[in-house]
Amino acid sequence: xxxSELQDADATARDRGVGTDVxxxxxxxxxxxxxxxxxxxxxxxxxxxxxxxxxxxxAAFGWQGYHMHVFASGPDExxxxxxxxxxxxxxxVSLGQLIGGVGDRLRYTYDFGDSWEHxxxxxxxxxxxxxxxxxxLLAAKGACPPEDCGGPWGxxxxxxxxxxxxxxxHQEMLDxxxxxxxxxxxxxGLDADEIEAELxxxxxxx
Length: 206
Fold this sequence. Notes:
The chain is of the alpha+beta class. It folds into two domains: 154 residues, MM3350-like (Structural Genomics Hypothetical 15.5 Kd Protein In mrcA-pckA Intergenic Region, Chain A, Roll); 34 residues, no CATH class. Helices cover 29% and strands 25% of the residues. It contains six helices and eight strands, in the order αββαβββαβββααα. It has an eight-stranded mixed β-sheet. Helix 2 runs antiparallel to helix 6 and helix 4 packs across helix 5. The two termini are 33 Å apart. The relative contact order is 0.21.
């Protein structure tokens, strides 16, 4: 994307949005994953820039964070500046600049190889509480899939293999995950306290 188009898109983002003293309740759902579904409900400041929102999502889900990512709003894509990819600089755009109200949606993709697509839905707009340290985890469901397992399709296959001790890749997958037994793998398991600790350590906090 030419520089002039990047500037136009950036200006469009700044022209939209909600106020800066607003907290946004969002539900971030991992698309294509079920049994169980994987999602996180968070409270974040509207003026959280997208690079910080990325850090919050990674912390909330349990991703390792070493893969590339991109946010998308309509036709516009926001990420780490790269001339070849043509993303709008995510450090210059906040969540609040891309949303107008409840029901608005954004897309977030983590790992361009596995293509973990997340849908971000605005559920509520709230007054900020000066006594609260944001972001805040309100609710969560489903464990984060193992990194580099092949995206939603690969994750579904992995769960099938682990559930079948007779599968010829059963032991191979246990070894890959570093597990002694398939019973140690829990697709529905998560530790809310650990997620909250990771969020507190992320660069998204304020």
